[in-house]
Each structure stands twice: as C-alpha cells, then as structure tokens.
Amino acid sequence: MIISNIKGGLGNQMFEYAAGYSLAKDKGAEFKIDLGHFKNQDRFKNETHRDFQLDFFNVPYKLATEEEVVAVKKRYSGGFLPLLKLDSYLTMFNITKYPLLKNFSSDIYLDGYFQNEKYFIKYAKDIREMFSLKKEYITNDFEKMCEKIAENFDESISIHIRRGDYVTNEQANKWHGLLSKDYYYNALDYIKKETGIRKLYIYVFSDDSVWVKENLPLEGDVTYVSDSFNPAQSIILMSKCKNNIIANSSFSWWGGWLNTNEEKTVIAPDKWLAGSKRHSRNIVPKSWIRCAS
Fold it and tell me: In terms of pTM, does the model score above 0.85?
C-alpha cells in the first residue's frame, strides 16, 4: 500500500497526490491518502491554515484509516522512511533521490512535497485528466472567463503575484521570499521579444489585487481575475492562457504545467526559495524559462 500525507495548499496537495498515485501505479499497489494533517494542523504555530481541496477536481481517492497509517509508519525507524522523514523533507526537492523511491518493495508512507514533475511525468495523461474540474465547478462565470481568454489566445498571458502568507507569515516570508517587480517586467519583456506580440492580453491572478493595481502597473489589456473563483478554477484558468508567468508558488506552477499548448512560454523565477537554490533546482521543468527574480 502507498499512502500519501496530504497537506499544504492546493498546489502542494496536487504534487503529493500525483507522486503517490504514480508510485502506486509503478508498483501495482493500492493507493490511499492520509488527511490527518488537516485535523492536527493547529499544532503547527507558524503554519498557514489550509483545507483539503482536491475535491474540486475529478480526483479518485481512498482515505487511509488511522490503523493503516500507524501500521505503515511502524515499519520504519522513527515512524517514517529514512529518506522521507518529516524533519528532512526538503531532500525530496532533489531529483537525485527520486530513483530510491522505487527500491522500496513494501508499504510506503510518503511525507513530503515532491515538487518535481519527474515523480509523475510517466502518468502525465492520467494526472491531467484527474486535475480537471468537476462539472459543478464549471460555472457560467468560469465559462465566460474561458471564452474571454480564447478570444485573444495568441496574445494571452497569465501572471501570478503571490503575496498573502508570503507577506504576513514571518516564516513563510523568510523561506519563500517575495519576487521583485523587475521579475514580472523582465518576464513580460522576454515574452514580447520572443513572440513578437504587440498587444498583450494579461490575466492577473493574485491574493492581493489591490496591491498589484497600486504597485505593479501593467501595459496592455489587463484583466484582474476575480478572487471569487475557487483555487482550482483559478489554476485551470491560468492553464487556458497561451503563456504563463508564474510566481515561486506551487499554485501557479500547476497553471503552467496543465497548460497543454505546445507553443507555450512558461517563465519561472530563477530563485524559487529565498533560503536556498539547492533545494529548488529541480522544481522548474527544463523547457520553462527562468528569469532573474
């Protein structure tokens, strides 16, 4: 049995699910998810409160029982795989550890973020199908926004400006850091130069649109996408744009990855984490462009 510990925001939950699903497929094992973290997250004082959000998508899952979680954890010293202990989860950002996952033949409890497409690229078709919106979330407003993007698809660019807990949470700010305004302007200049687009149709996704409007003036036809869309709808709307400028955030990472346009340009910050380049060097797919942040 493969059990994935699901935690964090929607982007992280997608990584965790995709990695567990893919490993279970490789091993022909049963796959279940553990939602215990959401019940106990109040114990983590510096952690932003999150809710389970994979239910926005057509994601099939079975919940692991407390007994199953305990049984699998007990197979390893300290309660976790030596490779995947919670206190060293950042090693899972490094793809050099990836092949080791397949070497374990018994039950596995995955506890980490797995922010690398190599954990699940083999099953990309499955993952993309599962990370599609459930019918009830394909609302009239959502469809209208999809139609608006499609009207000028070749010139469309999604931009994600992540603030929120990156500003208000001291630990998140120290670890992740905020991207500079120059990052976004340089990314836009790159797209204009490489694509020859004369007029940009920009779709801004942010948890602080007021700040963006006051501090990051943008040229072209700019649409500030309403925060009334749920997180999954926003990710899918990003993926509907031809080009994507993402933040140092797993949320917009998925907007770029779910974009199936073969001629897309996805720009990501060269430094994903303020604290370290080493732990984030494999997050960004090789086909994406990294821009000074």
Answer: yes
